[in-house]
Predict the structure.
Amino acid sequence: MTQDTLNLIRPDDWHIHFRDGDMLKTVVPATASVFRRAIVMPNLVPPVTTAAAARAYRQRILDACPPGSNFQPLMTAYLTETLDPDDLAAGHAAGDLTAVKLYPAGATTNSDAGVRDIRKVDATLKRMAEIGMPLLVHGEVTDPAIDIFDREAVFIERVLKPLMDRLPDLKIVLEHITTRQAVDYVATAGDHLAATITPHHMEINRTDIFRGGIRPHLYCLPIAKREEHRQAVR
């Protein structure tokens, strides 16, 4: 190992979708063979909205692990406007819930039950800030008037910045960022905001989606952006 190389023998995956049923049984063994821990996304149908549902989902994941595996799934709750803050706090204290995931309603897969008005969940977010429970954010607006390539940047201005002003002690992770605006904001917003980046958003730009014809396997949400943004997230 050279001075500029770090070998991760058992890395952690901080954003994974196991789904459920046959898909879960297929994906979990592959993940458990490489990773020690993973943050498990809660956007099932129906979504994981209680500590009890998270415990049950965690058990299904553990049941799908190979014999002798020490893989540790870290569970999240799906934020809705009717989520019970007391249940969240109890689940967090018991180790059943690591974080809460914010999906703006309609932003991505299985997000129809997500949040339509962020102010309606302020009480829940305030409780999370008090107990140190992180909020994981899919940072895109769903206003149909906003171009799909601008939804992350607009989310930062319309939703994230006002939220951090209201609740400066809330720990937030802006997930799978794709824009220069996100990089710049996370770099300057202080210790309570972090971000994750996917490998593919560091490797492709929006032109690649159409290079030589439409390439559907390069489509994802958030969608890849211009080359200047790819360079920024690298």
